[in-house]
Design a protein that fits this description.
Number of domains of chain B: 2
CATH architecture of the largest domain in chain B: 2-Layer Sandwich
Number of strands of chain A: 21
CATH class of the largest domain in chain B: Alpha Beta
Helix content of chain B: 25-40%
Oligomer: heterodimer
Strand order of the largest sheet of chain A: 4-3-5-6-7-8-9-14-13
Number of helices of chain B: 5
Largest sheet of chain A: 9 strands, mixed
Strand content of chain B: 35-45%
Number of domains of chain A: 2
Distance between the termini of chain A: 50 Å
Helix content of chain A: 25-40%
CATH superfamily of the largest domain in chain B: ACT domain
CATH topology of the largest domain in chain A: Rossmann fold
Chain lengths: ~425, ~150
Amino acid sequence: MIWNDEFETLPREAIESLQLKRLQNVVNRVYNMVPFYRQKFDAAGIKPAQIKSLVDLARLPFTLKQDMRDNYPYGLFAVPLTQIVRIHASSGTTGKPTVVGYTRRDIDAWSELMARSFVAAGAHQGDVIHNAYGYGLFTGGLGAHYGAETLGASVIPMSGGNTKKQIMIMQDFGSTVITCTPSYSLYLAEVAREEGLDVRNFKLRIGILGAEPWSESMRREIEEKLNIKAIDIYGLSEILGPGVAIECIEAQNGLHIWEDHFLPEIINPETGEVLPLGEKGELVITTLTKEGIPLVRYRTRDITRIIPQPCICGRTHVRIERMSGRSDDMLIIRGVNVFPSQIESVLFNIEGVEPHYQLIVDREENLDTLEVQVEVNEETFSDEVKVLQDLSEKIRKEIKDLLGITCKVRLVEPKSITRSEGKAKRVIDKRKQ
Amino acid sequence: MTEFLTGGAMKVEQISIFIENQSGRLADVTRALGEAGVNIRALSLADTSDFGILRLIVDKTDLANKVLRERSFTVHKTEVIAVGVPDRPLGLNSILELLDKWKVNVEYMYAFPEHYSENAIMIFRFDNPDEAIRILLENGFSVLRGEDVYSV
């Protein structure tokens, strides 16, 4: 099923000509309405009229998260506040949050893109959508909510937290679709099990999971433990919120990015140069239709590549590969680039190992150290020391084989790693403290 | 003394608990058990630099298991064997040599702090417990029944 047949299956040339028209429009608009962009374009010596093809996009300067902070709160808005009907903000773990504003048309477009996303994930009218993304400043809750209503599904505005109640509602209300972070979906299954319930027997069919990077092995774990199809959704508040890109249930291989609204590029994160189609690098997005806060060449810090091959689902919008991680999350340990998701995939591939882990990075005598904490459970516990030591050794060796770095594996007691009801905190980097 | 019993009744239930090397964790276990009215009959702690495995024989195994699980400990029930060991020089040695001759391996063992008639009691975990019981009984050693051990 496809929500918007006309736009989701546009031929390539039609997408590109629409993109160019919209790009020219947005570049004009920001140049005239946002002093920050006028200064940046002037400093780069480029005028909106010089954007004559999509290739010219590369001549425009980037927008960074820091630029949003520097223009806190409303400096990058391209319309007066009288036109803004909604304001969201990022969590802002460091310093000021980044603030985004939506016009009524932005909300409508977002709702449509989320409805498209729901349909791509296999949801339809009649589904009971259990929305466990946080409602509030975070875009996840309301973004998914409006999309679910636009689709015509029955949405339960659960928000995050209160896990036991979530389980009760999910069971009693017959939720068929859940929207939350991947780590929270596993936590739900775990808490249900403690309550003597098996989520596999619930009516749940589909999980639309995002807001944190996760691995293919974690997907298998979720699909197995919840008996659902786990679909990866991508979004970031600066660009829209959830609904920028999503996997289709037909392929579950790469996320279709809604190209009539967003123009993706992949760049080398160090040099900023645009990489050839299909190469892996940092995703950069230009919003094509946003009115409240249009962004030109926003650096997402997310590492991926574009999959140009057509998809079996019939959608013509290109796919981006599952994120290998955020370049912000990337750890450099003894000079080796390490994404927490890589270690995660090692752990998930070892029989019986729990999905809860934490990485502790430290520096001892000028040498980086990595400690991987893994919870022992009923399945992996043995009353013989050597069995547990073999398990640690196996994990240590597989990480070494994959990443080439030596780590220390520490088995910890069950539930000693803090559970997250939102984004999981996987890394404690003591080098920064 | 040495009643001929089936292997099952001759085994003693032991619970093992995973414990991180952290101050106070051991006390958490003993407090939980004590408050539930569980009495510890014997114990051994195997420790590494990161974690320890606490092995316990208690008077109420099922209750102990339940109480510890409720407190999120990882608990395993394991069957071990309590053997009466002649309380004299070479007493333990006579058992170990016998088992070695029959190629039965000891995974671990620890002493029980009480006597049972003339004998000291040792708790053994063997790689082949049924075989071990047979050999010990055939050679005149006493193997204690679970119920005797819980209430010695």
